């Protein structure tokens, strides 16, 4: 019998200004394709077709079109930034394909031809603030990369803090890839926020964390134990590269390597494919989960047609390293955990707060109150300080 | 904080889509559901007794819509309107704008667009409403300019004072009576009330 094979597009940049998380997506998707092909569970194989836009937003649409038209794939796993995703949406909508987007993003989007396999703001930013504000305070400095992720995530944070009795001491942006961040650090030094919400990406984020780490080493008032940097997308891979300087700062994530059970199948697969040199962090695992969802859906419906696959992932739970996942038919998003981790010098995270359960997606923030119950907890904390 | 920075929320809104049954309507109803809006479709007009005034936003069909669909004169809808445009014929665009459509969605309707259209339509509607009210009140005050001049002149004559002093008297009187200065001036001119000789007949 002929081996049936379905092509899967893998549209990640392996170079450019945000290559670290993008490469993690690439490795995660490829590892999952290898695992599916090695498994006797699937009566077919997946054929990986990688295209590398090299971090250039304007190349994504063209490459995606090529994967679908020439590569005959109906499924593309890929995109890291929101800008690149916005470029790809018209292509998959027009050509009846599905984009499986495996990165955290700001929300306010639902496309019929996208499956969102990572958190939107109510699943990352909101639980992060819910954890951090009562512990550290609500006078906040917002920093971000100068594009939609930075703008919108900070805007939501501003809105939440404004509604909840907090205060924004400053909001600063730098261009993607820009490492000139000394002015951010001096402003933080002057304004002394309770914490810094970091929506920088890639090189800018590393430069900022290094500079803030240096400030903390020089002046104890800026030690992360006192004034941490908190992020929605800083994961094990990048923290490992940063080492000491990121230690003590916080990240919210639907996946931490430290929590992953080595007993379940997918996680064991990650350990094998990831190998000692490769780190299975959230970016890796979300892309991995996207491929597993595609394979499981094809197995169930016997076809890789976009509408059939979408129907299958909406109707059944798929076991993934992120937990059992079913796509919400109304939003094409998935329910996800929101764990809070504190970075360690060795690149792993101490999980300081485990999600009480998967949080349903709310991409338009229609059922997530922006007024959070901070006031009382902040007051309690102040009282405790006095008592101590 | 400027309101534009706020996260717009339409939860609990009711939307009426005036369009014949079509995939575009289904796509709009799906978008409504995602952003917490109860959507309803009707064509050619609403049948329910309650009527169109019960909705928070109307989506009208620029291709086949007509004035008779609405229980109000063109341009005076009491809620924001979004036009659904298939043919970009200038006449149809003009018709939808004449109805008060402050935002547009191009057909075919896909999985996005309604949210931005709602934000734009609500913002423009609110701004237009408050500007209309402000203009009406300014117009009224303009009309009463003559009464203001006459009343000032009468007070100058009566108290043998200059215009500034007289106007100040008028202003204080308006404040004491909790009326606009224009209304007080009108009453003085009409002789409804004059200093020192208050409603003599009423006392009897």
UniProtKB/TrEMBL annotation, chain A:
One Pfam short name: Peripla_BP_5
SUPFAM superfamilies named in the record: Periplasmic binding protein-like I
UniProt-listed InterPro entries: AmiC_PBP1, Peripla_BP_I
Domain of life, source organism: Bacteria
Alphabetized GO MF terms: amide binding
Signal sequence coordinates: none
Protein name from the UniProt record: Transporter substrate-binding protein
UniProtKB/TrEMBL annotation, chain B:
Matches recorded under InterPro entries: AmiR_N, ANTAR, CheY-like_superfamily, Sig_transdc_resp-reg_antiterm, WH-like_DNA-bd_sf
Family annotation (PROSITE patterns): ANTAR
Superkingdom of origin: Bacteria
GO molecular function: RNA binding
One Pfam family, short name: AmiR_N
Sequence ranges assigned to domain ANTAR in this UniProt record: 128-189
Name of the featured protein: ANTAR domain-containing protein
Species the sequence originates in: Stappia sediminis
Organism lineage: Bacteria, Pseudomonadati, Pseudomonadota, Alphaproteobacteria, Hyphomicrobiales
């Amino acid at each position: 019998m002929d081996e049936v094979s379905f092509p899967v597009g893998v549209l990640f940049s392996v170079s450019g200004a945000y290559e670290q998380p993008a490469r993690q997506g690439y490795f995660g998707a490829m590892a999952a394709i290898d695992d599916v092909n090695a498994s006797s569970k699937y009566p077919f194989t997946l054929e990986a077709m990688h295209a590398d836009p090299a971090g250039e937003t304007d190349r994504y649409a063209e490459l995606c079109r090529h994967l679908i038209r020439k590569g005959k794939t109906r499924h593309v796993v890929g995109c890291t930034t929101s800008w690149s995703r916005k470029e790809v949406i018209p292509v998959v909508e027009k050509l009846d394909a599905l984009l499986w987007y495996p990165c955290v993003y700001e929300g306010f989007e639902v496309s019929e031809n996208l499956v969102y396999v990572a958190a939107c703001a109510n699943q990352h930013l909101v639980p992060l603030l819910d954890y951090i504000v009562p512990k550290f305070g609500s006078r906040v400095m917002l920093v971000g990369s100068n594009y939609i992720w930075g703008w919108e995530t900070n805007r939501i944070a501003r809105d939440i803090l404004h509604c909840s009795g907090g205060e924004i001491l400053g909001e600063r942006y730098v261009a993607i890839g820009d490492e000139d961040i000394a002015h951010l650090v001096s402003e933080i030094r002057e304004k002394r926020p309770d914490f810094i919400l970091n929506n920088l990406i890639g090189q800018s984020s590393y430069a900022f964390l290094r500079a803030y780490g240096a400030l903390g080493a020089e002046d104890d008032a800026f030690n992360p134990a006192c004034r941490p940097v908190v992020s929605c997308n800083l994961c094990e891979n990048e923290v490992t590269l940063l080492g000491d300087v990121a230690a003590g700062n916080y990240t919210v994530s639907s996946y931490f390597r430290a929590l992953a059970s080595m007993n379940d199948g997918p996680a064991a697969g990650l350990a094998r494919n990831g190998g000692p040199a490769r780190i299975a962090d959230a970016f890796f695992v979300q892309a991995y989960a996207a491929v597993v969802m595609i394979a499981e859906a094809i197995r169930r419906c016997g076809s890789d047609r976009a509408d059939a696959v979408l129907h299958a992932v909406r109707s059944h739970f798929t076991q993934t390293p992120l937990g059992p996942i079913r796509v919400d038919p109304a939003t094409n998003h998935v329910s996800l955990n929101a764990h809070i981790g504190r970075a360690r010098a060795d690149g792993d995270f101490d999980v300081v707060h485990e999600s009480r359960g998967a949080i349903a997606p709310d991409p338009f923030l229609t059922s997530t109150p922006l007024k959070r119950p901070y006031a009382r907890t902040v007051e309690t904390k102040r009282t405790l300080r006095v008592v101590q | 904080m400027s309101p534009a920075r706020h996260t717009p929320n339409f939860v609990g809104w009711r939307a009426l889509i005036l369009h014949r049954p079509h995939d575009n309507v289904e796509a709009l109803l799906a978008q409504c559901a995602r952003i917490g809006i109860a959507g309803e479709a009707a064509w050619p007009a609403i049948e329910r007794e309650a009527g169109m005034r019960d909705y928070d936003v109307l989506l009208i069909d620029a291709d086949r819509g007509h004035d008779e669909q609405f229980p109000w004169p063109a341009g005076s809808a009491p809620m924001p309107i979004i036009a659904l445009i298939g043919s970009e014929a200038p006449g149809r665009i003009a018709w939808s704008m004449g109805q008060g459509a402050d935002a547009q969605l191009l057909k075919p309707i896909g999985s996005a667009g309604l949210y931005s259209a709602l934000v734009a339509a609500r913002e423009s509607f609110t701004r237009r409403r408050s500007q209309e009210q402000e203009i009406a009140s300014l117009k009224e005050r303009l009309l009463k300019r003559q009464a203001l001049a006459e009343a000032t002149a009468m007070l100058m004559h009566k108290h043998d004072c200059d215009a500034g002093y007289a106007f100040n008297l008028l202003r204080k009187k308006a404040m004491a009576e909790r009326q606009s200065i224009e209304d007080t001036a009108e009453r003085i001119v009409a002789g409804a009330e004059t200093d020192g000789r208050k409603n003599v007949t009423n006392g009897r």
